[in-house]
Design a protein that fits this description.
The protein has 119 residues and is of the alpha+beta class. The chain has one domain. Helices cover 27% and strands 7% of the residues. Strand 1 and strand 2 form a beta hairpin.
Length: 119
């Protein structure tokens, strides 16, 4: 049964039945030239900007209709993707994604994966 939890935008119902991918997949990209010519402090400063507001901006964008309007290009070809999980869980059915907290509150929503990756 879902329970009420106070979050970023007031009271929300927790989705305890969802499982699948983590909502936000941050995929950094840089050229070798950029990495060798830019001091390490620059990369550390950029990484420090990724906070709760940054993650919520992705959720707000997804809920605003911007995805359909802008049609962003995928960053990975799902036909060539390999399954490389950062967290290995043997049974996702018993894993409580709604209780995960990466420091900026629990996940906003969850949905089954649409990518076909072979385990």
């Amino acid at each position: 049964m879902a329970r009420r939890e106070r979050g970023h935008r007031g009271a929300r119902r927790k989705n305890t039945s969802a499982f699948g991918n983590v909502v936000l997949w941050a995929r950094p990209a840089a050229t070798a030239k950029n990495l060798t010519e830019t001091p390490l402090g620059h990369a550390a400063e950029l990484a420090s900007r990724v906070d709760g507001r940054y993650c919520w901006s992705f959720i707000n964008f997804a809920c605003s209709g911007g995805v359909e309007a802008k049609r962003p290009a995928p960053t990975a070809d799902h036909k060539k993707m390999l399954l490389r999980p950062d967290v290995e869980v043997y049974s996702l059915l018993g894993f409580a994604f709604c209780d995960i907290d990466f420091g900026s509150s629990a996940p906003f929503f969850g949905r089954p994966s649409h990518s076909h990756a072979r385990a």
